[in-house]
Amino acid sequence: MRLEVRGLRICLQKTEILRDVSFCCGPGLTAVLGVNGAGKTTLLKSLAGICPLSQGEIWLEDGKSLALHEMSAGRRARYLSYVPQESRTGLHCPVREFVVMGRNPYLNWLDTPRKSDYQKADEAMESLHIRHLSEAYFDEISGGERRLAYLARARVQEARWMVLDEPLANLDFGRQHRFLVRLNRYLRTEGTGAILSVHDPLLAYEYAEQILVLKEGKLAASLSKKDWDFEKTYLSWLRQLYGMDGRVYETPEGKTIVWRRQDAKN
Ligand SMILES: Nc1ncnc2c1ncn2[C@@H]1O[C@H](COP(=O)(O)OP(=O)(O)OP(=O)(O)O)[C@@H](O)[C@H]1O
Q1: What is the dihedral angle through the alpha carbons of 12, 18, 23, 25, rounded to the nearest 10 degrees?
Q2: What's the domain range around 9?
Q3: Is residue 108 part of a domain?
Q4: Is any atom of ligand 1 closer than 6 Å to the C-beta of 41?
Q5: Which terminus of the chain is more solvent-facing, meaning fewer CB atoms within 10 Å of its CB: N or C?
Q6: CA dihedral 84, 233, 243, 5 (to 10 degrees)
Q7: Interface ipTM
Q8: Could you tell me the CATH number of the domain that includes residue 173?
Q9: End-to-end CA distance of the chain
Q10: Does 263 fall in a domain?
């Protein structure tokens, strides 16, 4: 299964935010990197159908071609789930009820969730270790726990593709890594893909198969770990984006990037 974006252009309040963005992602994890204001959230919102497209097309290729950009919100939700950057804290309902909302695309207008829907919600919460929060209120749990509740909701939605806007914000160090390990395991089991924005280039390096670099509203690069010169190109982009010099080191635990100390520069 592939997600393909062709010639995307987004204008908000008469300002062009994204222009001529085209890329294709295969199964597995794709990370979107870019400095503040580069257009990451706008790109992910446009994939989720929240930002109207001024121009362009979004396709899911899965044996047949599905034109996401032409689908209603309800139909699109069966194919693509979205975890927003800000968690709505005003929502005063038990976490289990929030998670089971992920089943809405499969229910008729006035239907209530069935026992099987709650079972899916319980399983998703169990796998993310938040089952104990079932009866807690969504607006009373921590920011990191809310992120996990959003992820559980996205899972029960059983969409073919996931879009996550800075899902690691608010998560503690251990949870950031466990989140990405579990997400990758889930994507492998389901044979599907996810695209997420992230500010930490090390996490993107460690866990993503593909990295999209956004710069000033344009797609500056699409890098794949399979590219023979991936590391060299990646380090070069990190220098251009953040002004940080790094080197890749091979360690017994795998490769890692080590930064040149900023105070050693001058
Ligand atoms: N509704 C809007 N109307 C006008 N301009 C907007 C709107 N939403 C975002 N922008 C502008 O679009 C640009 C890209 O914003 P976006 O939130 O997509 O960036 P980002 O890469 O996600 O940033 P960050 O890393 O800080 O979250 C910014 O300059 C922002 O001010």
Answers
A1: -60
A2: 2-227
A3: yes
A4: yes
A5: C
A6: -30
A7: 0.97
A8: 3.40.50.300
A9: 48
A10: no
